[in-house]
Model the fold of this input.
Amino acid sequence: MEKIKIFSEITVYNNVDELPEDVKKLMEQAVAIREMAYAPYSHFRVGAALKLDNGIVVTGNNQENAAYPSGMCAERVAIWAAGSQYPDNKILQMAITARSENHTLNQPVPPCGACRQAIAEYEIKQDKNIEIYFMGEVGKVYKAESLHDLLPLIFDGSDL
Ligand code: THU
Done:
């Protein structure tokens, strides 16, 4: 028997103004699309903006449904839009932000487990890390250099 330790590293920015200028712009695009979310049930809006290697930014937001499980998270709306429209381009960066209508989100809001698995598929497919920046409505921004930092022990197609 042995124990293994799994290491993750997150860079913490105190606020959006500390981000590199291009990432700040990407986060602003995530904020803009967040406000267009369809979230009449949770009143919790999420926006995601992806920067591709051709310079194009693909965005998405959460889309809810009266049959709750039929809704979808912002991150998967965005990454599937990128995967369907630009299948040959690599995703370099992803910016995520959330805002609740009930209280101020002042802590970073990370992507849910299902979204991490979906993002993992594309990071492995493109054989290049995706930088993931995430925040709430205000306050700190967390940066993961790779999806691996958010989802250790990834299940991927090599296991099939
Ligand atoms: N949501 C996202 O869009 N991304 C996440 O990673 C977590 C949750 C959405 C789904 C639902 O519309 C609302 O937030 C509340 O769970």
Notes: Helices lie at 21-34, 74-85, 113-126. The mean pLDDT is 97.
